[in-house]
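[step 3/7] fold_predict: job queued, chain A
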Amino acid sequence: MAAPKSRLGRGLGGLIAAAKPAAPTVPEAAAVAPAPAAAGAPGYMEIAVHLIEPSPYQARREIPADQLTELAESIRSEGLLQPVVVRKHGDRFQLIAGERRWRAFQQLKIKAIPARVVEASNASSAALGLIENLQREGLNAIEEAHGYASLIRDFDLTQETASERVGKGRATVANALRLLSLDAELQGFIAKNLLSVGHAKVLLGVEDAAQRALLARRVIEEGLSVRATEKLVQTGRSVPGPGKAKPGARTISSKDAATVAGIEKKLTTHLGARVAVLHSAKKGRIVIEYRGNEDLQRLLEKLGIEA
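[step 4/7] structure written:
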């Protein structure tokens, strides 16, 4: 949780203060009942889950099935600790913050969800959603970068203005945006936490795309540290020079990439965990991400392996 005096906290507080609670109209009152737990608190209501739609500015690209199931079980056991935040959108409501909570309610088949209804512009809505995800540390580095890019692109903001909106330093936003200049394969490695942002900064210094891809795969396969990766790049011993790459060593074809992506998706769904398939013409690896001993035990049982 961000410290009260942090720039991020001030950014969220300022945006929420600017997003005033919306007064319910007569049609809304018929479809939305005030939440008993928030009696007397303007802007807090229980809204029918089917009347809420996701935000088009949502930075999160993927919600792992295991995390959603875990959240749903927590809500079933302890209840919802924090309402979702929405704004009026025609005769429905649009999420500003809390998509995972909303989807967990859908999974639990609960018909109404506690929500805070605010008035917010498109830009404020996008910034609020991004800030909420950043504070919860729910975004991977690529999703965060896409969030900043959306603010700048969709609302004609400068990097400086966008950074002020979300309470981040301009350098932080600029460095995040640089990740989007990497090709899709490498962005996928970063999103799956197979490569760190530190590795990504080193890879950005490699101009040749084919060499960059080969180096990224070597970093993953050998578990190289950021410092070791820097040394390889500096000494020029990271990968074969231009025109010297071995046959089949370059990145896989778009057709093979689509097949690999499909396999990753099926494995992720089947195992309820993030899966990366590192494929080449001669060899490859399957990397399964898990969280803690209990999740590892669950995966072993799913794979039919006794610990």
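[step 5/7] annotate
Confidence is low (pLDDT under 50) at residues 1-42, 238-252.
The first strand starts at residue 33 and ends at 34.
exit 0
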